[in-house]
Amino acid sequence: MRPFLDHGILEPDNDSAERAMKPIAIGRKNYLFAGSECGGKAAAIAYSVIETAKMNGGDPQVWLA
User: Fold this and answer.
1) Phi, psi of 12, deg, nearest 5
2) What is the dihedral of CA 15, 17, 19, 23, to 10 degrees?
3) Shortest CA distance to 27 belongs to which of 9, 51, 56, 61?
4) What is the DSSP track for 36-64?
C-alpha cells in the first residue's frame, strides 16, 4: 500500500495477480476431464515442463520439441 500512497499515479488494483492466477483456475476445471489417472499424470508433466520453461525465460514450444 505504501507505493500507492507515495505515488498518486498508481492505481490500487490487483489485476496482475488475477492474471497470474487465471491459468490455474481454468486448468482446475480442465483437470477434471483428464480421462484417466495416466492422462492426469501426463498433463501434470506437460504443464510442469511448460511452466518451467516460462519461468526460465525459454520458449515452451522449443522445450517440448
Assistant:
1) -85, 85
2) -160
3) 51
4) SHHHHHHHHHHHHHHHHHHHTT--HHHHH
pLDDT digits (tens, 9 = 90+) for 17-40: 787 778 777 777 777 767 788 887
Rounded to 5 degrees, φ, ψ at 57 are 75, 15
Contacts of 53 (CB under 8 A, 6+ apart): 59, 60, 62, 63
Please, are residues 44 and 52 in contact by the beta-carbon 8 Å criterion? no
Hunting for cell 476431464 — which residue is that? 33
Burial class (CB in 10 A: 0-12, 13-18, 19+), 14: exposed
**CB contact set of 50 (below 8 Å; sequence gap of 6+):** 60, 63, 64
Helix, coil or strand: residue 3? helix
